[in-house]
């Protein structure tokens, strides 16, 4: 029996159930992997600790791991993304949950530690929140942990730093770097969900508007493609000459942010950097410009600088803060600069997270069987697991692949 | 004027906040107000407005009110009323009869209340007022100077009435103005239907098959935006020219019965009834999503779905799941009502700025030309249409060319 859960209100479980069921209906790959891989016994008796944005899609993943025979303890990776009804539903289903929406930093830390105290042998992490605490505050549990799997770019960066300093004592799979994760989640997931969140939040028209996409990584590529799909005139801003050239070749206008500032109607950042849009840009923007962030952290837009520039600020619609500059121009910031698709909407589409979480599920499944063979450090997801996920999705879609002929295979192997 | 009937006056500040946001993004209406509406033509003129009641339509009503008209307002159906906006526009002095949770009878009563205020000019939607004024409210018909109609389906109704010799006053087909249907029906529907549908379902669109019933202006906009969201687009049509247009635009065209098996999403925008019906439901995939983007709420045959289904429940907000006898689940959005209005905030503001510029100037035109137009359906004069586009381009800072005298001369020659 699990220890008692820390949740807001057990009576919210029914609503949480309804949300998880909607996800279960559309998580085709995870559901098929459950039959083909997860339930093969590798996860039976394993103790898994998960830290992840606790909403319906992640809850479904936790449930499938539980169904595969693991003992699963779940906490949220960010107190503001935790949905209390979903947490209640998971607890009612018999999982141990420690998560409260809006928990203060001390309580948040406490929830992470309590999750670690379930003595996991496998960890599913987001932002390296559990793994970092394991190394700092629960060293006695380190020996029992076989390995971990990391969901985010920022977590992978943090783990790489630990590895560089010789501090990382367990093997960790960089699930974020799998192709089935970043090519779909970061690109199409961000593209669709960010644009629809911005348009729902503002009720403004995108067709014919100039949309400035700051950065052309996987997220930026998706944002630019979907903005074009809504009829926008897309301007891309880059610091990397190759990515800039790729944007030009994709048919987008590329310019410096200083040049783009006075022409943009919408600005969307996805850089992973800080203070990308700052005072010198705010000062040149048009009246009514809309500012949104699709990157991981809220500091891509220099909000303190905006507050300094503005004579007044007020909420003009849900999720929209209006800053009135001293010259009378109004700038509209969405979701306080936080990830707009999560803070102002339901986040990525279900099927995209189905792929990302298939990566996570198989990453844990792999660790359960092979962690002992891996040295401490950051490892890629094995290529064959990545392709197996894509193959499973294609099969579900009824899409058939070509096979190379023996002659082609021989040609590929030859060098003469 | 009688007292407003609204859900809760205390909601007014939130409604007013929504209306201010619209005001900030409605440069065309604001320019037209200064240049035309405020010149006294509409002072003390009773105007009835029937329209999906949210911030943009509230703002149109508010401008007519500020122009001096005595405005009475009703929603087009209970699902299309936002109570905070109703309270907000009432607080600004417009007479409002609208409640989001009104019954069908309550809604009909609201429309009748507007007519009983004695409007001489009508901003109509789906010909609701005109239908009443030609049936149960005939005694109020005589004082009407004219009306303007917002929707394709309403114009169809009015033309039917005209053909039967019934239409008693002039109606401007606001919907048919270029500045309305080229933008509202096409780009407005295109953007807002998908943002609503994707927000409601939280589903991914790329690689999915979306079946569009109807390739009118709405269908064209839906197809283009669906393609922009990386969907595979299938179009069903009854008109061979439009079907050919869809093929030429690069979409797959097939009968709805064939498409029924393929679609992940079905969106209707035909203006007719029972487009998706039993024979289609029976063939659809498990999990298919059904949404209506057309002006009438009967494009999806919901009663047939009810008969077919073994059980029914709400699986997410605005999503009703119908479980068929063989276990397949069909998901109906917003009970078959216009998904972008019932499940979202409706068209983008700048689009409605154009549409309502058409409606406002149609009302203005009817007021200036009182008694000069014959009963029947009239187009919006083309110079008004052009004036609206000109103002919009000005607000965008876009300049255009004009013909040289030589070119003008060339175009006039025939030899």
SS content category of chain A: alpha/beta
Uncertain runs of chain B:
none
- Number of helical regions of chain B: 17
Mean pLDDT of chain A: 94
Number of strands of chain A: 15
Specify the biggest β-sheet of chain A.
Answer: 8 strands, mixed
Instruction: Give the CA-based shape of chain A.
Output: globular
Largest interface, per-chain counts? A-B, 39 and 41 residues
The total count of strands of chain B amounts to 15
Strand share of the residues of chain B?
15-25%
The strand line-up of the biggest sheet of chain B is: 9-8-7-10-11-14-13-12
Query: Helicity of chain A, in percent?
Result: 40-55%
Largest sheet of chain B: 8 strands, mixed
Helix content of chain B: 40-55%
Our Rg estimate of chain B from Cα atoms comes to 22 Å
Structural class of chain B: alpha/beta
What would a concise description of this structure say?
The complex is a heterodimer of chains A (416) and B (415). By secondary structure, chain A is α/β, with parallel strands linked by helices. Chain A is 45% helix and 16% strand.
Provide structural commentary.
The complex is a heterodimer of chains A (416) and B (415). With 416 residues, chain A is an alpha/beta fold. Helices cover 45% and strands 16% of the residues of chain A. Chain A has helices spanning 13-26, 28-36, 56-67, 84-92, 105-116, 129-137, 139-142, 153-164, 179-202, 218-229, 241-249, 257-260, 279-282, 303-309, 340-343, 350-370, 383-397, 406-413; strands spanning 47-51, 71-75, 96-98, 122-125, 147-150, 171-173, 210-214, 233-237, 253-254, 266-269, 290-293, 310-317, 320-325, 330-334, 377-379. In chain A, helix 2 (28-36) packs parallel to helix 16, helix 9 packs across helix 10 and helix 16 (350-370) packs across helix 17. Helices cover 44% and strands 16% of the residues of chain B. Chain B has helices at residues 12-24, 27-35, 55-66, 83-91, 104-116, 128-133, 152-163, 178-201, 217-228, 240-248, 256-259, 278-281, 302-308, 339-342, 349-368, 382-396, 405-412, and strands at 46-50, 70-74, 95-97, 121-124, 146-149, 170-172, 209-213, 232-236, 252-253, 265-268, 289-292, 309-316, 319-324, 329-333, 376-378. Chain B has 17 helices and 15 strands. By secondary structure, chain B is an alpha/beta fold. The radius of gyration of chain B is 22 Å and the shape is globular. In chain B, strand 7 (209-213), helix 9 (217-228) and strand 8 (232-236) form a beta-alpha-beta unit. The A-B interface holds A 18-19, 21-22, 25-26, 188-189, 192-193, 196-197, 199-200, 203-208, 225-226, 228-231, 288, 316-317, 320, 330, 345-347, 349-352, 397 and B 17-18, 20-21, 24-25, 55, 187-188, 191-192, 194-196, 198-199, 202-207, 224-225, 227-230, 287, 315-316, 319, 329, 344-346, 348-351, 396.
């Amino acid at each position: 029996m699990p220890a008692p859960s820390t949740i807001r209100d057990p009576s919210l479980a029914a609503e949480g159930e309804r949300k998880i069921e909607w996800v279960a209906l559309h998580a085709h790959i995870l559901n098929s992997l459950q039959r083909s891989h997860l339930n093969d016994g590798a996860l039976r008796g394993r103790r898994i600790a998960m830290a992840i944005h606790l909403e319906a899609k992640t809850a479904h993943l936790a449930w499938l791991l539980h169904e595969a025979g693991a003992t699963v303890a779940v906490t949220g990776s960010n107190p503001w993304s935790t949905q209390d009804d979903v947490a209640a539903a998971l607890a009612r289903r018999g999982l141990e949950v420690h998560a409260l929406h809006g928990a203060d930093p001390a309580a948040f830390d406490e929830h992470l530690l309590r999750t670690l105290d379930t003595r996991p042998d496998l960890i599913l992490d987001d932002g390296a929140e559990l793994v970092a605490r394991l190394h700092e505050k629960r060293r006695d549990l380190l020996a029992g942990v076989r390995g971990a799997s990391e969901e985010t770019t920022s977590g992978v960066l943090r783990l790489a730093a630990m590895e560089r300093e010789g501090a990382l004592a367990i093997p960790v799979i960089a699930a974020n770097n799998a192709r089935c994760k970043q090519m779909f989640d970061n690109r199409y997931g961000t593209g669709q969900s960010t644009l629809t969140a911005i348009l729902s939040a503002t009720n403004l028209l995108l067709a014919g508007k100039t949309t400035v996409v700051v950065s052309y990584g996987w997220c930026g590529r998706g944002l630019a493609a979907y903005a074009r799909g809504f009829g926008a005139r897309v301007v891309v801003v880059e610091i990397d000459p190759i990515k800039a050239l790729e944007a030009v070749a994709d048919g987008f206008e590329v310019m410096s942010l200083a040049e783009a500032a006075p022409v943009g109607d919408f600005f969307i950042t996805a850089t992973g950097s800080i203070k990308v849009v700052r005072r010198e840009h705010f000062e040149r923007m048009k009246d009514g410009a809309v500012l949104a962030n699709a990157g991981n952290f809220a500091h891509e837009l220099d909000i303190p600088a905006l507050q300094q520039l503005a004579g007044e600020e007020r909420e003009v619609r849900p999720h929209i803060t209006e800053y009135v500059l001293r010259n009378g121009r109004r700038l509209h910031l969405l979701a306080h600069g936080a990830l707009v698709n999560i803070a102002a909407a339901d986040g990525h589409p279900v099927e995209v997270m189905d792929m990302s979480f298939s990566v996570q599920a198989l990453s844990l499944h792999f660790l359960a069987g092979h962690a002992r063979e891996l040295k401490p450090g950051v490892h890629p997801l094995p290529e064959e697991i990545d392709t197996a996920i894509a193959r499973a999705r294609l099969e579900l879609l009824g899409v058939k692949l070509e096979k190379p002929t023996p002659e082609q295979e021989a040609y590929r192997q030859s060098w003469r | 004027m009688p007292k407003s009937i609204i859900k809760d006056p205390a909601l007014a500040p939130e409604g007013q906040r929504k209306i201010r946001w619209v005001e900030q993004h409605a440069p065309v209406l604001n320019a037209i107000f200064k240049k035309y509406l405020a010149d006294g033509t509409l002072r003390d003129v009773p105007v009835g407005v029937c329209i999906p009641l949210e911030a943009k339509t509230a703002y149109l009503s508010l401008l007519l009110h500020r122009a001096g008209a005595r405005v009475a307002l009703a929603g087009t159906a209970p699902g299309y009323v936002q109570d905070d906006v109703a309270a907000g526009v009432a607080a600004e002095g417009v007479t409002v009869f609208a409640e989001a949770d009104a019954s069908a009878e309550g809604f009909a009563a609201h429309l009748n209340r507007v007519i009983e205020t004695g409007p001489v000019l009508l901003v109509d939607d789906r010909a609701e007022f005109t239908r009443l004024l030609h049936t149960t409210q005939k005694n109020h018909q005589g004082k009407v100077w004219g009306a303007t109609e917002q929707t394709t389906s309403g114009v169809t109704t009015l033309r039917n009435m005209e053909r039967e010799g019934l239409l008693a006053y002039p109606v401007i087909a606001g919907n048919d103005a270029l500045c309305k249907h080229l933008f509202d029906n096409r780009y407005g529907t295109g953007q807002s239907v998908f943002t609503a549908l994707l927000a409601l379902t939280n589903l991914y669109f790329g690689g999915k098959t979306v079946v569009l019933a109807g390739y009118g202006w709405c269908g064209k906009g839906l197809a283009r935006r669906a393609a922009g969201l990386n969907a595979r687009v299938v179009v069903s049509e009854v008109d061979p020219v439009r079907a050919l247009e869809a093929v030429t635009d690069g979409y797959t065209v097939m009968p709805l019965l064939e498409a029924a098996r393929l679609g992940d999403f079905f969106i209707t925008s035909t203006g007719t009834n029972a487009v998706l019906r039993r024979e289609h439901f029976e063939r659809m995939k498990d999990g298919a999503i059904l949404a209506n983007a057309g002006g009438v709420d009967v494009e999806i045959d919901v009663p047939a779905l009810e008969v077919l289904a073994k059980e029914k429940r709400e699986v997410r907000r605005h999503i009703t799941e119908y479980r068929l006898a063989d276990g397949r689940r069909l998901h109906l959005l917003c009970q078959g009502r216009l998904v972008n209005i019932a499940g979202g905030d409706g068209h983008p503001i700048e689009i409605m700025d154009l549409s309502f510029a058409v409606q406002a100037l149609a009302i203005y035109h009817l007021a200036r030309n009182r008694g000069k137009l014959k009963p029947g359906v009239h187009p919006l004069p083309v110079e008004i249409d052009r004036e609206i586009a000109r103002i919009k381009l000005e607000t965008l800072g876009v300049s255009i060319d004009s013909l040289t005298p030589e070119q003008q001369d060339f175009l006039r020659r025939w030899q």
